[in-house]
Amino acid sequence: MNMNDDFLKSMQDAARLLQTAGPQEATAAIQRALGALPGQTGAGFDPAAFAQGSAASAGATALGAAVAAKVAEATRAATAGFAAQAAGGSPLAGAGTSPFAGAGASPFAGAAASPFAGAAASPFAGAAGRPASANAATVEDTGHTVRRTFTGPAGSRDYLLYIPSGYADTPLPLVVMLHGCTQDGVDFAAGTGMNRLAEPGVCLVAYPIQRQSDNMSKCWNWFRPGDQVRGGGEAALLAGLTEDILANYKVDRRRVYVAGLSAGGAMAAILGHAYPDLYAAVGVHSGLDVGAARDIPSAMAAMKSGQAPSRNTVTAKSKGPALPTIVFQGDADTTVHPQHAEHIVRRISGPASAKAAADRGEAAGGRSYSKKVIPGEDGRADVEHWTIHGAGHAWAGGDRAGSYTDPMGPDASREMLRFFLAHPKAA
């Protein structure tokens, strides 16, 4: 089909409705737009099914496939960057990340922002999209990046591994970085600036890449029970990918860390809970806690309301105590309710979280923040909780070369790395 101006405007209107009136109204607008296309009606469109990710998980219906084709064609028509993927770059590269740019959507998955999304992310993502200058070269710095593929019992994923120039015979720490929806490894590396911090030999940095065939918006499927369990699903796949790096590179096994943004942050929380024997500490930026959702509807509800996870729904089985955790959350985030940061902190630190005093500060970029440092008590783990005042759903202190970043600070990457290196596993 040819994407005309009317259809594009309808999609932009749907994105605005998503932010102002909610998913039901946005879904109705999308259905109306689809119904206006030749040979299509909106009546049979099932957004909950389509949100599962691929045509197969959407039930392989003819309409689902047609919608997927229309969205894909619209994206190709409105952006110049999709071709970069064939050259090993990012499908987000180019003049814009989406024909729906400017709609204010979220990179989050599984739960909320969109009836199309795999979880909360949206085909409208791109309002904070990465500019054309962000490509593989921008994240090389003075080390180099290799692209590898891990295949294990739970599946296969590509990943980027940044190897700093100081990498030699001495084992280095490893930081596993999980991107948010609509992002990829190149985008996330550019936006977080973690590779620059890895120089000259501070750590290795890995960027697992979610496939569009496993989630339409390239979100980690944090909300599906089968992906929250130790030994199964994406949790097992990512743990296996981490072990693959440990087997092939010189890594200090006492200093292996995992962090993520949004859907990636939610998955990082799951990995820390399910694999405390593998990771030493966790960083969660704008994410949800373990057990926050069990499917798309509950994910949408949790993200909007900030409701606490029901602990009897927690499917990730822990093999040890909670890990030291650093949490960042903007208090003006309209994608993930800020209360979810409190849930993560409370699970790990217990009653101590309520007693901890907050220190206030201001980042060089202008953002003010409150920071709680909660030392481990009674066998619990250390926790830092950063609340960034006036910030939305974006990586604090990030670079505009990547999507979903807030350069006004504070520098979440630098603070996470500091926290991580201060928390190796006990010998």
Describe this structure in words.
The protein is an alpha/beta fold and 427 residues long. It has two domains: 5-78, no CATH class; 136-421, 3-Layer(aba) Sandwich (Rossmann fold). It is built from twelve helices and twelve strands. The protein has a ten-stranded mixed sheet, with helices on both faces. The protein has a two-stranded parallel sheet with strand order 11-12. Strand 5 (251-261), helix 8 and strand 6 (281-285) form a beta-alpha-beta unit. The model is unreliable at 1-5 and 33-139 (pLDDT under 50).
Descriptive key words:
427 residues, alpha/beta, Rossmann fold, 2 domains, two-stranded parallel ribbon, globular, disordered N terminus
Secondary structure layout plus pairing:
Layout: H1 5-20, H2 23-35, H3 47-50, H4 62-78, E1 144-152, E2 155-163, E3 172-178, H5 185-192, H6 194-198, E4 204-208, H7 233-248, E5 251-261, H8 263-274, E6 281-285, H9 296-305, E7 325-330, H10 339-349, H11 352-355, E8 358-362, E9 368-374, E10 383-388, E11 395-396, E12 405-406, H12 412-421
Parallel strand pairs: 3-4, 3-5, 5-6, 6-7, 7-10, 11-12
Antiparallel strand pairs: 1-2, 2-4, 8-9, 9-10
Helix pairs in contact: 1-2, 7-8
Alpha-beta classification: alpha/beta
CATH T-level topology of the largest domain? Rossmann fold
Supply the CATH class of the largest domain.
Alpha Beta
| Head-to-tail CA distance between termini | 61 Å
What is the number of independent domains?
2
Radius of gyration: 20 Å
Helix content: 25-40%
The H-and-E topology, N to C, reads as HHHHEEEHHEHEHEHEHHEEEEEH
Strand order of the largest sheet: 1-2-4-3-5-6-7-10-9-8
Report the strand count.
Answer: 12
Instruction: Based on the coordinates given, report the CATH architecture of the largest domain.
Output: 3-Layer(aba) Sandwich
Proportion of beta-strand residues: 15-25%
Give the overall shape. Answer: globular
| Poorly predicted residue ranges | 1-5, 33-139
**Number of DSSP helices?**
12
Mean model confidence by pLDDT:
75
The CATH homologous superfamily name of the largest domain equals Alpha/Beta hydrolase fold, catalytic domain
Largest β-sheet summary: 10 strands, mixed
GO cellular component, one term: extracellular region
GO molecular function, one term: hydrolase activity
Organism: Pigmentiphaga litoralis
InterPro entries: AB_hydrolase_fold, Esterase_phb, Plant_Biomass_Hydrol_Est
